[in-house]
Write a structure and sequence with these properties.
- The protein has helices spanning 22-26, 43-56, 81-102, 113-119, 123-136, 149-156, 190-203, 230-243, 255-260, and strands at 3-10, 31-35, 59-63, 106-109, 141-145, 161-166, 205-207, 213-215, 220-222, 247-248.
- It has nine helices and ten strands.
- By secondary structure, it is of the alpha/beta class.
- The chain has one domain: Glycoside hydrolase/deacetylase (TIM Barrel).
- The longest helix is centred in the middle third of the chain and has 22 residues, at 81-102.
- Pfam families: LamB_YcsF.
Length: 261
């Protein structure tokens, strides 16, 4: 039986400003990328999401980003290596503390937004993030864009890497994501999204925005939690995959797995 992980970016609400429906998404996904306070999220809200993830047996990862609350971590930045290594360590450490209090633990790291896209190809910033992860815990898994140079770069540095595909984002012919500034970058049609993701699992292929066929090997599928149709898209993907005989399970192990180990 084919299997895949479903992940979503959660814990991104800030004080009285809500972002996404975390409770509903936690009933659908198998892994949750939890904001660490730099691009979004506040400690009380993050702790609430972590407790719910632990209750539901959902695996959790540190969703680290640039220090950019105003831009939601989606603006390109060029921090020094010392800053980026320190920021990586700081964010993972903060989430580890909150996760311990919630009765779960951080199993992986997924960079957010502009940081994610930058380190896909920028070797210097990628090295800084890799160094920060290894300084905290070399056993942490890195989630990265399928087909991007950082995948082999991180593996060569000794990290385990899980590759992901994006359910609700359009791809360029080179395997990169279409910029959110361009029309068609975000896909809102649940039927289209579900069909695309079943093809990823069954054929390891996806059609780029220009019609090019791309080979894409992925162990996890991401559905962004901050889009208005996020819950409907996630349910459509989950239902289609299960109906097609695909097993959904976290790559990093759930808290229930950890408790029974």
């Amino acid at each position: 039986m084919a299997s895949i992980d479903l992940n979503s970016d959660l814990g991104e609400s800030f004080g009285p400003w809500p972002m996404g429906d975390d409770a509903s998404m936690l009933g659908i996904v198998t892994s949750a990328n939890i904001a660490c306070g730099f691009h979004a999220g506040d400690p009380a809200g993050i702790l609430t999401v972590l407790r719910e993830a632990a209750r539901r047996g959902v695996s959790v990862g540190a969703h680290i980003g640039y220090r950019d609350l105003v831009g939601f971590g989606r603006r390109n930045m060029d921090p020094s290596s010392a800053e980026l290594v320190g920021d990586t360590i700081y964010q993972i450490g903060a989430l580890q503390g909150l996760a311990k209090a919630a009765g779960t633990e951080v199993g992986y790291v997924k960079p957010h937004g502009a940081l994610y896209n930058t380190i896909a190809n920028d070797m210097r910033q990628a090295d800084d993030v890799i160094a920060g992860i290894k300084a905290v815990d070399p056993s942490l898994i890195l989630m990265a864009l399928a087909g991007a140079p950082i995948v082999e770069q991180a593996r060569a540095a000794g990290l385990t890497v899980v590759c992901e595909a994006f359910a609700d984002r359009a791809y360029n012919a080179d395997g990169s994501l279409v910029s959110r500034r361009l029309p068609g970058a975000v896909i809102h049609d649940a039927e289209v999204v579900a069909t695309r993701m079943l093809r990823i699992v069954s054929e390891h292929r996806i059609t780029a925005i220009d019609g090019t066929e791309i080979v894409l090997e992925a162990q996890s599928i991401c559905i962004h939690g901050d889009t208005p149709s996020a819950v409907a898209l996630a349910r459509a993907v989950r239902d289609r995959l299960i109906a097609s005989g695909v097993e959904l399970k976290p790559f990093a192990g759930s808290i229930r797995d950890l408790a029974n180990a």
